TrEMBL record:
This is Sodium/calcium exchanger membrane region domain-containing protein. One of its GO terms (cellular component) is plasma membrane. The keyword Membrane applies. GO terms for biological process: intracellular calcium ion homeostasis; long-term synaptic depression; long-term synaptic potentiation. It comes from the Eukaryota. Belongs to the Ca(2+):cation antiporter (CaCA) (TC 2.A.19) family. SLC24A subfamily. It catalyses: Ca(2+)(out) + K(+)(out) + 4 Na(+)(in) = Ca(2+)(in) + K(+)(in) + 4 Na(+)(out). It is a multi-pass membrane protein. It is found in: Membrane. The lineage of its organism: Eukaryota, Metazoa, Chordata, Craniata, Vertebrata. It comes from Pavo cristatus.
Amino acid sequence: MFIALAIVCDEFFVPSLTVITEKLSISDDVAGATFMAAGGSAPELFTSLIGVFISHSNVGIGTIVGSAVFNILFVIGISINIV
């Protein structure tokens, strides 16, 4: 599974990011941070959308709040410890 993910990223994701950064004239660092953040949040977004609009449950609110708490406490904490 990880090999398939690596192949898809190398064959499709990286070349598409290259085209987007050239068309928008933005630096590689900004593009990497922006699009990787969007890619990392996409599963949570789709889980929330499916939970709210298709199954009509409250899972969307819990997903968003849980993700925000995790990002604030864990990701920033790890980032500070690495630096």
